[in-house]
Amino acid sequence: METTTLTSNFKSEEYFINMGPQHPATHGVLRLLLTIDGEIIKKVEPDLGYIHRSIEKMCERDSYQQIVHLTDRMDYLSANINNEAVCLTVENALQLEIPDRVKVIRTIIGELTRISSHCLWWGVMGMDVGALTTYFYGFRDRELLNDIFEETCGARLTMNYNVPGGLMFDIHPNFVKRVKEFITHFKTKLPEYDRLLTDNIIFQKRAIGVGVLSKEDAISYGASGPVGRASGYSCDVRKHHPYSALDKVTFNEALRTEGDTYARYLVRIQEMWESMSIVEQLIDNIPEGEHRVATNAVIKLPKGEYYQKVETARGELGVYVISTGTKSPYRLKFRSPGFSNLSLLNHIAVGGKIGDLVATMATLDLVIPDIDR
Amino acid sequence: MNSALSITKNIHDWLFSIMPETAASIAEMVLIALVYLGIFAIAGLFLVLLERRVAAWFQLRIGPNRVGFQGLLQTMADAIKLLSKELTGTSKADKFLYNLAPYFVIISSLMALSVFPFTKEFQAFDINIGLFFLIAVSSIGVIGILLGGWSSNNKFAMIGAMRSGVQTISYELSIGLSLLTMVLITGSLQLSEIVEVQKSGWLIVQGHIPAIIAFMIYMIAGTAETNRAPFDMVEAESELGAGFHTEYSGMKFAYFFLAEFINMFIIAAIATTVFFGAWLSPFGITESIPMLGVFWFLLKALILVFLMMWFRWTFPRLRIDQLLTLEWKYLLPLNLANIVIMALLVWLNLTISF
Predict the structure, then answer these.
(1) pLDDT at site B334
(2) Interface check A277 vs B, CB under 8 A
(3) Who is most buried in A220, A327, B49, B296, counting CB within 10 A?
(4) Beta bridge partner(s), residue A310
(5) CA neighbours within 13 Å on the CB side: how many for A320?
(6) What is the average per-residue pLDDT within B28-52?
(7) Nearest by CB to A203, which of B58, B316, B325?
(8) Where are the domains of chain B?
């Protein structure tokens, strides 16, 4: 739709409005300070810190096993991948040999977590552009995954399934069967998502050409995950630095070049298909073996600096540990995907309408505890 | 003569026998107003429940089904809860306008309700400019929304109110023009006349192609006029929180809420009257029982209400500029062309009538 700029003789005045910390579109306690001219956004300033819990500082006090539990509370929608990141860091530092079984199960659960996170994102995305029904469709499918997780590790959201050295328990005997059932089910339901929202003309008008992010800007702002990939920046950690069993599977990195809201949307939809394909490749041949290798009760990392990055549902999560050889890290820094992606918001939302801001923010897929930590 | 009518006739005779003519007329008006108030409240509560059940059906949920049979008393319970709630407000609100706003909204929809021909006899008020009156009173509601948003001293409410203004002014054109297209066939604005004409075929059949186009335009514009999704820019909960009624609570909020549902019914009822023959039964199958007209009227209106609910629970919301583009660049020119086509059809006697 072409828009022409009108030169107006009316005097207009910019005004300031608080979006959040309690606002339906910010999905949590994010506060945006908006400067608006009529409906047009002039400036967006995110104000953070409403649920800052000093997780990084708490890590300096805790043992490495305890740190894993804290990471659940960062990006709670990719809880399992966060756990995996810390475990991988510790295991690499200790140079532990991890059984193949553990690697495969970690990858499967990680990809299921990604699907579950994207399901929730899809539902909320629809809600943000005004289609309330998507929310329930997304949650219907996410519920099945939560049931699978619950059966295997006893928790639905904050799973704590990974421990340094392996997994806390072996998988439930039903796990393989139920995952297969889910994949069959979800293959019929994902096209439904397209029919309901992707192909909707109103949604396309709302999304195409809105919040455009160029590849250069994506790189310079440190965008990662679907946000970066929608702008053509190949940044999938799973592809470039495979961890766990991801080197054994073949999958396509969902890449698009448009960089707009619709591209970010399509990248996530495609990622759900890719994740399903990864799970399908692994689910039939989970190797036999131990689900955990023995570690010392008190893990002390050798003196040094360690870094491990993983691909969460939101992008690149980095764990940077400085150890002085004691039971706790001297310093632990999380590089969270949400924080970098949020920094983009002012860049891509300025000039749009309030509705565009909400749609753009929905495709950044912000999880506020991930940003605030 | 059926029984319902003889009751009203008896009341009429009795009133005129016990008091002077002016007083009796006033008493009769008050009685009729009370009856319509009752219809209003019951219809509003029922439509809220219907919306919730329909939404649940679309969304793989069950919906309210605990209070009363199949949840029939749920909205009643909600209304009682709202009655008991504290009326909060912002301290710097323009108190007079803030309190006045809900009444504008509710009075406009109540007035519109009075002219519908539920059956041949059951019509409170049959004036010769019926359709014009309907359009006129239903646009009073926007004043309430504008006042409410403006006076509550909240920027989100203000944005909502301004959106409402621009949206309603734009889409009222389409409503008026699409109804005018049909008036070309009937040659009268009086609702009873319009129904009379439809005895030889509903107008949507009589006017065939241009009538169907007019109906579609009318439904789109009508959805926009009631500020419902996909045109719920005014509330747009993911953008503006609650829009123009952000600062309203308790019964004042309930007025806005009820009026929205009644307005939806009014839009559907206008469409029923103008396009689908109001109380006329299909093919005249129940012509011998006039009271069944109410049933047919409500059935047709509810089907259209369901259609609007279907819109709401399926489509994403438009952006404000797209909303205006749709109206001014597409619907309005189409509408004008449609009127010309309809005029030609009527002139060349190409309408279908049985």
Answers:
(1) 92
(2) no
(3) B49
(4) A317
(5) 7
(6) 84
(7) B316
(8) 1-84, 92-347
| ipTM beyond cut 0.85 | no
Q: How far is A341 from chain B (nearest CA, A)?
A: 20
Stated as kind and residue range, the H or E segment containing B281 is: none
pLDDT at B263: 87
The domain in which residue A182 lies consists of 51-372
From A59's Cα to the closest Cα of chain B, the distance in A is 36
- Chain B CB within 8 Å of residue A24 CB: yes
Closest-CA distance of chain B to residue A228, Å:
25
B232, B314, B319 member nearest A206 (Cβ): B319
Cβ–Cβ of A131/B315 closer than 8 Å?
A: yes
| Cβ contact A130–B241 (<8 Å) | no
What pTM does this model have? Answer: 0.86
> Nearest-CA distance from B31 to chain A in Å?
42
At B105, is the pLDDT very low, low, confident or very high (cuts 50, 70, 90)?
A: confident
Residue B331 tokens, joined: 């619907």
Say which residue the tokens 């009429």 belong to. Answer: B12
For residue A256, what is the domain's CATH number? Answer: 1.10.645.10
Asked whether residue A7 is domain-assigned, the answer is no
Residue A27 inside a domain? The answer is no
Q: How many residue pairs bridge chain A and chain B with CB atoms within 8 Å of each other?
A: 82
Q: Which of B129, B136, B213 is nearest to B172 (CA)?
A: B136
Count Cβ atoms below 10 Å from residue B6 Cβ, excluding itself: 10
One DSSP character per residue, A131-145 reads -THHHHHHHHHHHHH
Find all residues with CB under 8 Å of B53, minimum gap 6, and list them.
Answer: B63, B64, B70, B71
| Reported confidence tier of residue B1, pLDDT bands at 50, 70, 90 | very low
Q: Model confidence over B160-182: pLDDT tens digits?
A: 888 888 888 888 888 988 988 88
Name the A residues in 127-146 with CB < 8 Å from any B CB. Answer: 127-133, 135-137, 140
